[in-house]
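U., I forgot to send this yesterday:
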Amino acid sequence: MVSSPREIVKEFIFHVDGIEESLKSRIMRDLEPIANMGAYSWDISHLWGGYSPSSRHAKTYEDAESSMMAYAMSFSVKNGVTKNKYF
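Result:
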């Protein structure tokens, strides 16, 4: 199964105390957006506290960036960190 094509719009790198490897994140524009999901989505290389964001889709780039930044800036190693196997 092939997922819909995406274009990477912007990539980010975050340095978090307590993690040797930098976090990487990207915002993508879906070239064939799914109805009612929005044309933008984001992904991140690591998850914290077993928490995977429930919604990574947005109708605008600004909303996708805001959601991604909120997750990345609240990153906490005290609750555990795992690599995102889908990144």
